[in-house]
Here is the input.
Amino acid sequence: MPDIEEVLPKYQQISGYIRDQIERGELAPGAEVPSERELAVAWKVARPTAAKALNTLRQQGLVESRRGSGTFVRGPDAVPLVRESVGRARQYGAMYAEREPVDILAAELVDGPDYVTDALGLVAGSEVIARRRLVTGDNGDAELSTSWFPGDLAGVADRLLDIKRLPGGTAMYLEAVTGRRVASVFDEVSARLATSEERKRLRLARTSAVLVYRLTALDSDGAALQFDEGIYPPESWVFRQEYSVRGA
Here is the structure.
């Protein structure tokens, strides 16, 4: 059991640890989660702190309590799929689980939109590689996702132009063929009205807002290696981050 750190409240550290076990599959659907008493002993915290950690997991939809039995991991179809800016982004190259149906709509060289070339640090109008995907969750929710790369990578990373999933993800592939690896990421979230294509792909009403999630991956020299853009329908996906607040 890891030592308690002072960066986050103790209950968040405990819930985060259990959440990681669930996401990695170490605690499978239906598995029993340690009780309040067991967590209090293992982590050397008070019972109310352990109870708060379990309640956090319940609020996130990851576990459920059964009267007289304990607390158990919920099944994957019972938990809305979550694209979290910290969790998935920091596990770069594993943005989508193997069980998630991913349809790669296109993988091609195109003239980069201004916001894409700007994010990649390229001259306006430069060619870029675009890998467009439609991801469908277990509960029927969908996501449109595009990964953009500098066009000059086409010569050394030609599989980016192949309409197939890359085992391990694009980050692992790029590291293998270029020697460059993702050292840091930053992201931003905004909202806007859906385009006609987005409405069609995501089966939205004629006038619908969408959530736009953008993530830029930088190598160790600070050069942009990849720019990702996810489009999400309203009320279907959740972004959640937790922070410690000094003086609270």
The CA atoms of residues 63 and 73 lie 4 Å apart. Helices lie at 10-24, 36-43, 47-59, 87-90, 114-119, 170-178, 196-202.
